[in-house]
């Protein structure tokens, strides 16, 4: 199994002080120390699988910077920077773009709103791109032009699953002898997008609403092992039945801000 290279950001400044998605409740208690502990265990799991972890320094006043997947999209050594919809996260974009430049990636600034791998997911030769709540449809054209891969637009329709990576997980890229495949929640997509997914991925693992509600689809797969929230019991069983190994992690504190394992994990593809 090829080693993956992931960018992560320690949740040193994690907090839930504003509401920009249905998961966030500024009136509810949160525990920054627990968030750090859970994130540290997630990082340890990746390292135990042999993956390489890079870290970006967390900045004060940016409590959602832990969600590194939203920091950009990196394919073939090229990075598309982000432009957040919400002012509360705007300063994360330049911080991640600076990190990419320092790491030697060619950086292209975003013209339209896009929130990185939250809505832009590489799946074999294609790029799956979500829209409806955050990333604008116009950004999909930028993605295709920069990376030179066909982009498949998918319309999200349930505000709980506001990013594509909360409604769909890429399980295999086809570089490991397995066909390209995904897991997803049909109800999170428009009828037309459901039809596209059925056509592209006839053997997809179909998630239940209950598992999606614990952000079970916010999972990270290296093609062999899927790291996902331990609370997603039925999805774990379905993945195992489909031939994948699974590792359950508890990142429930980060879920208070609407994030899971994938949100914390940006793949760096050179």
Written account of the structure:
Helix content is 24%, strand content 21%. With 270 residues, it is an alpha/beta fold. The strands form five sheets. The chain has a three-stranded mixed beta sheet with strand order 2-1-15, with helices on one face. Strand 7 (126-131), helix 3 (137-147) and strand 8 form a beta-alpha-beta unit. The longest helix is centred in the N-terminal third of the chain and has 17 residues, at 32-48.
Calculate Rg over CA atoms: 17 Å
Helix content: 10-25%
Low-confidence runs of at least 5 consecutive residues: none
- Give the termini distance in whole angstroms: 17 Å
Q: What share of the residues does DSSP label as strand, in percent?
A: 15-25%
Would you tell me the structural class of the helices and strands?
alpha/beta
**Strands of the largest sheet, in order across it?**
2-1-15
Sheet having the most strands: 3 strands, mixed
Detail the topology: elements first, then pairings.
Layout: E1 5-8, H1 32-48, E2 52-55, E3 73-75, E4 78-80, H2 92-102, E5 106-108, E6 120-123, E7 126-131, H3 137-147, E8 151-155, E9 168-172, E10 181-184, H4 191-200, E11 205-206, H5 209-212, E12 220-221, E13 225-229, H6 233-241, E14 245-249, H7 252-255, E15 266-267
Parallel strand pairs: 1-2, 4-5, 7-8, 10-11, 13-14
Antiparallel strand pairs: 1-15, 3-4, 6-7, 9-10, 12-13
């Amino acid at each position: 199994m090829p080693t993956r290279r992931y960018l992560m950001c320690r949740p040193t400044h994690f907090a839930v002080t504003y509401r920009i998605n249905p998961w966030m409740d500024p009136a509810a208690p949160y525990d920054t120390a627990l968030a750090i502990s859970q994130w540290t265990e997630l990082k340890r799991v990746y390292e135990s699988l042999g993956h390489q972890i890079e870290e970006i320094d967390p900045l004060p006043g940016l409590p959602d910077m832990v969600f590194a997947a939203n920091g950009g999209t990196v394919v073939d050594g090229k990075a598309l920077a982000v432009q957040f919809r919400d002012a509360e996260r705007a300063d994360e974009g330049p911080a991640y773009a600076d990190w990419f430049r320092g790491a030697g990636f060619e950086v292209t600034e975003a013209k339209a709103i896009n929130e990185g791998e939250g809505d832009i997911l590489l799946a074999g030769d294609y790029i799956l791109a979500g829209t409806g709540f955050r990333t604008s449809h116009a950004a999909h054209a930028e993605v295709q032009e920069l990376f030179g891969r066909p982009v498949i637009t998918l319309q999200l329709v349930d505000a709980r699953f506001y990013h594509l990576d909360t409604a769909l997980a890429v399980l295999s890229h086809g570089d490991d002898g397995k066909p390209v495949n995904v897991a997803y929640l049909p109800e999170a997509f428009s009828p037309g997008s459901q039809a596209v997914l059925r056509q592209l991925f006839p053997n997809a693992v179909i998630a239940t609403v209950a598992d999606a509600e614990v952000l079970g689809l916010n999972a990270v797969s290296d093609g062999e092992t899927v790291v996902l929230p331990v609370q997603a019991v039925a999805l774990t069983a379905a993945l195992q039945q489909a031939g994948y190994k699974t590792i359950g992690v508890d990142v429930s504190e980060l879920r208070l801000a609407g994030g899971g394992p994938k949100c914390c994990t940006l793949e760096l593809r050179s």
